Amino acid sequence: MDEIALYIHWPYCARICPYCDFNVYKNKPDTTRNLVAAILADMQYWRQLSGPRRLVSIHFGGGTPSLLPAKNLRQIISQARQLWNAAESLEIGLEANPKDINKQVLRDWKLAGIERLSIGVQSFDDYALKFLGRDHDAAAARKALEAAQTEIPRVSADLIYGWAGQTLDMLHKDLRIAVQSGVSHISAYQLTIEPGTAFGRAGIRGINKAVNSDHSADFFELATDTLSAAGFEKYEVSNFAKNNANRSRHNLVYWQGGDYAGVGPGAHGRLTARGVRTATIATLKPKDYISAVDETGYAIKERETLDAKAWAEEYVLMGLRISSGISLSRYKQISGHGLAPERIAEFERAGLLVTSKDKLSATVQGSLVLDTVCRELLS
Ligand code: SF4
To answer: What global pTM score does this model have?
Structure first.
């Protein structure tokens, strides 16, 4: 049976961070009931679209899904299990803000079936947390990591680095504290300045909020070296796990070109059926999402059939992010032709790509310039 992952987007946050360009809105607890009802109905529509599938993961992302009451998480999880055939290794993950974590809520999440938490620590430095507009402090982050590990089997600390003023020593300290916390997974994301965000607007006024791009490679390499030395395997550009079992199975579905239902305002989805791959985006605003589901039973706003070229490009762009890379024969199967061997050989000589039998993957140096490598590989 074909596999599917389920992504649930909870779009509300206690406050909007100045670097965030996700589909997020200021928290409105009074809409929770209606939005959960719409999500449950939209999941039923997705089940009709996908047909019977083996459900490999449920991921609550956002926004801040740790604002969603545990009883609603439970409802969504139990309906997902009824709609699809849950894999024995079903991963159920939740992104959580340190401020929302306490002993009681952890027990409730555990009872609801959550077995993986991604905690948005961002930094253990109070100045950095202020700079990034976060509403928690370093002590809350440490406490959340400690408490989470007493209840939830797999915990990830998510960090952001490369903010203007950060030094390599500061990043090293953050990484060291994350390692010492005992978590089995660390995500270390480089701060990028996106247009339309508060940091993006500051950039237009000449105020740079991220480290100079000449230095960003040093930060990236420090993160890779420090975490590798601490026994974390880098299995994706920004993701490190103590061993295979601690990798994010949900994110691997994205990177390996699998299928996922995208439910909730603005959620993206991918579905492959009878050799046709469709990309979907749900209606963005929560109130429009609720109305769309009320009126039609679903909330997909955009539905695009990917042609062979677009599908194959996405396969490469996502697949070269992970250490296991892409399958050259799968690429050929999707696109109808192979990748140019002379171009691959050029990148191999430059130390940016490596091939091993059918596999093509990026080296650490290649990961630093992945956009350029992919662009040239696909041109
Ligand atoms: S908490 Fe996360 S999703 Fe919400 S605004 Fe901040 S970065 Fe964006």
So the answer is: 0.97
